[in-house]
Amino acid sequence: MINKIVCPNTVKERIMNEVINMFWMSFQANLSALETSIDKAIYRTSAQDEKQTVFNTMNNTIHSLMDYWERVKSSSFQNETKKMMRAFAYANNKLKHADSLVSITARTGGFEFNSFTFPINIPPIEFVFTDLDSFCREGRDENDNKMYNEYLRGKNVIECFKEVALLIEYK
After folding, report:
1. Residue 141 pLDDT more than 90?
2. Is residue 30 domain-resident?
């Protein structure tokens, strides 16, 4: 009987692919939880527990995205994809290190009683990435903040995550 010799590179590649897949599935699960928490929070404007759930799932989603990216970023990705990931990395770093930053998302849209004119225009309620300019420091932060402003600031949170997911899925 002849024993089949397994090439270490093949085993290593298989294990690495399994690890990458686990991080991808974690990101997908967290993104799904974020989407669910935002859907609930859209209709419960003052519920603190819903705001906390959005905060928790946002943190989990962006952290799992960055964990996944760390494992696949050496692959050949388009320059625009790398810039978008720099924007997510900047948001992630601000969440972790900016002491006075409460959230990187904001609920926008809906009806406001402050002032309105006819015909009434009621923008859809959504969660968007907030302005982080006040947390920008000189140096490397400036370029990352520029990427954040270009790719994320003011844009729908779920749409941004879904867009980047399509760009970085490891095949």
Report:
1. no
2. yes
